[in-house]
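SEQUENCE WITH STRUCTURE:
===
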Amino acid sequence: MKYMNKISSYALVISLTLGLFSCNKDDDTNDNSTTDTPDPQFEGVVDWVKTFGGSKEDNALSVVETTDNAYAVLGYTLSNDGDITDKTATDSDFWLLKLDTEGTILWSKTYGGTNDDRADKLIQTSDGGFAMVGYSRSNDGDSSNNEGLQDYWIVKTDANGTLQWQKSFGFAGIDRAYSVVQTTDGGYFISGFLDVTASGGDGNSFTKNNTRHGVGEFWGIKLDANGEQEWRRYFGGTNNDRSYDVLQTPDNGFLMIGSSESDDFDITNSKGSYDFWLVKVNAQGTLLWQKSYGGSEIDVAYAITATGDGKYIIVGDSRSNDGNITTANGNADLWMVQIDGNGNLLWEKSLGGSQFDTGRAIHKTPDGNFVITGNSRSNDIDLSNNLGQSDIWTMLIDANANVSWQHTLGGSQSDFGNGCIGTNDSKLVVVGTTESDDHDISNNKGERDVVIIKYK
């Protein structure tokens, strides 16, 4: 099965328009999807769009296809009504939904305490359960061991969402986990950032460095299968450095990606204000190499995936028009780079229009291509349509960054794509948040809703 055919150039393919389709309550037709000659197994049209939530703010950040061919969606909710049935307060809690392939809720669970708890990343574990990470400010309820103002929080459940264990890691300041992977030994690796100023230099298993004080540092923590800490290490400089994603490499090390504002200590090749920053460590957490990519302005990496041949694709956004960025379209572009296993830059590409455009997630599809989602404010250059303040923007690329299909979806307000997957039956599922209740978004239940889009 294939999501797309290869195309011969790096240019964004907009010359052949997919059959127009509608997914909004007024049955209006939006010319916002472009493709090359389509693969018959992936039509590139919207199957359904659904919103979930209550009267407050609800957001989806991550999605996985489960082993029983359903979808699990993770985010956070401030609501205590509507689709949220197991909480009474309006503080923020982790929110885990399981849906069937038609978007019907199979079950819904929230996790947290009486303070602010927000999730960022979900994985299905080898036992069929789930692990999710984010941050917790609570010291009661499900989060019972808070160490400071805000901690890394990992929650492990069974396949039905029943809590099995949870752990917090942090110090006196604001510490936040953004990503988690299950490791080859059955444990877990969490990445995010550490407020090393508030920790007083603590946070390394092996050394304490009281001279290294920054706004934030990349912080990686290795856990065993029961969530017990094995080691932890932080990396960065004296300014703001945050890791937004991580993966385990074939040598059992880890590759953490994010952004760095620093130009000292661990950062030796800064390009500008903020850079894509990559940190490679071995299985024991020893720094092997680090690389910066970008230009003189703000460049932030949000997601990484392995291509399967020893290479990696990283997506985020760039405000630069110099340095490693060869083409800039607007205020900010979706910027992607491919690197080899040693961090050498193989190619880079900017996509977008004259406004603000970003990539927030990338997932390798079963046929070896890649789905990317994010959001766009543009309606020119690489984009032909914008419905409101910000639309969800999704595309398919091959390993050389050739784009075969793209689509924007949203309403007149702000809509954001945060997570995506390519499913085993050649579909795409995108999750995010919406403030709209018109155009493609037919039902808004509160301040912000979870939005889930399925393409077939």
Q: What stands out?
A: The chain has one helix and 29 strands. Residues 196-199 form the longest helix (4 residues).
